[in-house]
Amino acid sequence: MTEQVLPIRHVVDLGDLSQAGSQVVVAARGDELAELARWANVEAVRSFSAAVELRRVSPNRFAFEAELNADIVQSCVVTLEPVPTHIVKHMERELHYVRRPHADGGELTLAAGDDEAPEEIISLDYDLAAPLLEEFVLAIDPYPRKEGVAFEPPKERAEPPESPFAVLKSLKQGG
Asked: In angstroms, rounded to a whole number, what is the distance separating the alpha carbons of residues 141 and 27?
């Protein structure tokens, strides 16, 4: 399986982080915005930035908290007109550094609904953009509609359309 290349990266060394923590801004600029739009399959990304707070919780655990803001343009699924959207997403994660993931060779199993489990990381060089991009793409409306636009199904015919089999039967009888 090939690993997908993300449109932006912002790697920090969590090993240098103190308990006081650090505040980092992750933002896309210029060509990165265009690449981000292609990656997210939207018409345009006008802005993408996040204020990230990192804290060391213990020698191998870190707190990640972020406020993501983005402005995108999508096509209306009804009219194909541009639909601007502002995305605001708050997220929190706990990162757990493990030198060797699953030392017993087995898979990590979590109970259903266990969203609070820490995210295991195998390197202290952590890409802050990866979880931001994950939440960004999940926040995009898959069926954007221009305000006030509703889908109108086609009007039904008074008579049902002729069956394709009836057409074939008439061709057979005529020939």
From this structure: 21
| 38: number of Cβ within 10 Å | 10
CA distance linking residue 47 with residue 34, whole number of Å: 10
Instruction: Give the C-alpha separation, 124 to 126, whole Å.
Output: 6
The domains of the chain are located at 11-174
pTM: 0.75
Tell me what the pLDDT averaged over the chain comes to.
86
Give strand pairing partners of 24. Answer: 52
Average pLDDT estimate for 97-123: 68
d(CA 68, CA 126): 18
Residue 138 · residue 17 · CB < 8 Å: no
